[in-house]
Amino acid sequence: MPGAFHPIATPFGDLGAAFGKDGKLVQLVRLHGVALPAPEQAPKSLPYLKRQLEAYFSGNLRDFNIPMHAEGTEFQNRVWKELLRIPYGQAISYLELARRLGDEKCIRAAARANGANPIAILIPCHRVIGSDGSLVGYGGGLDMKEFLLRLEGVLPKAPPQPRLPLTWD
Predict the structure, then answer these.
(1) Reported pTM
(2) Please, how many CA atoms are within 13 Å of residue 85, restricted to the half-sphere of its CB?
(3) Which stretches of 3-160 are DSSP H helices?
């Protein structure tokens, strides 16, 4: 477990990035408004991660190139490697994820491993949806999952909200 998180501002709030002693990203999570003190020394890869996330959120980056190390069981690592094979702009169902792992019966285990993903966005667990197309299960919140899928074009862009004129009588 990482000792400290480096906050990174995003369009939906701060993410917390934690790095291993080797400088690899080990965790990227939504902070949900929790303010955490930043560690004293930032790893060399933190500015690079921030630039890549900024480019991703502006629609100018599809593939990340950040050294990372997600620690999990053998099965979790298989699931996370499979998530990395889902192209930008596409989504698959939990059932399809289980099929890609070689066994439809492992659907629940695959869903749990998907939910245990410690490096959200870069390991794109948000690209896994319900068989009926519903947005289910996301550690960062369904609002974040919807935002990411709209950003990547999996879901249509949200229509602009009408602005009502302010009037004073």
Answers:
(1) 0.86
(2) 11
(3) 45-57, 74-83, 94-100, 107-115, 142-151
68-112 pLDDT tens trace: 999 999 999 999 999 999 999 999 999 999 999 999 999 999 999
Query: What residues are paired with 92 via a beta bridge?
Result: 128
The domain 74-151 is classified under which CATH number: 1.10.10.10, 2.60.40.10, 1.10.10.60, 1.10.390.10? 1.10.10.10
Q: Could you confirm whether 106 is annotated as catalytic?
A: no
Catalytic residue among 125, 128, 149, 154: 125
Q: Where are the domains of the chain?
A: 6-57, 74-151
CB-facing half-sphere around the CA of 51: CA atoms within 13 A: 7
